[in-house]
Amino acid sequence: MANGWSIIIGLIVVVIASVLAWIFSPKGENQTVFRSTLILSFVCCYLMWAITFLAQWHPLIAPKRSDIRPDRVPE
């Protein structure tokens, strides 16, 4: 079962992968592009996963609007 530690463990994995990408990226004229691409890819994948995980963990079941009169709310 997933719990709150999943977000932190995922973040630690992404940080470690980003550090390894920074250290072991091939040297050359495109080193900055290569590093940036890997690190941004790791971060984007983590953010998409975290947002999806949190949206499933704490769903918005029935949001309530406060700007509608109670007699106009459809049932």
Write structural notes for this entry:
It holds the Pfam family ATP_synt_H. One of its GO terms (biological process) is vacuolar acidification. With 75 residues, the protein is an all-alpha fold. It has a domain at 4-55. The protein contains two helices and no strands. It starts with a helix and ends in an 18-residue tail after the last helix.
Radius of gyration: 21 Å
Low-confidence stretches: none
* Total helical segments: 2
Largest sheet: none
Q: Proportion of β residues?
A: under 5%
Estimate the global geometry from the Cα principal axes. Answer: elongated
Oligomer state of the chains in this structure: single chain
- Give the ordered list of helices and strands: HH
Mean pLDDT: 87
Count of DSSP strands: 0
The separation of the N and C termini measures 35 Å
Helix proportion? 55-70%
Class by helix and strand content?
A: mainly alpha
Topology diagram in text:
Layout: H1 5-24, H2 31-57
Helix pairs in contact: 1-2
Question: Which descriptors apply to this entry?
Answer:
75 residues, mainly alpha, 63% helix, elongated, transmembrane
Provide a concise account of the structure shown.
It is a multi-pass membrane protein. It contains 2 helices and no strands.
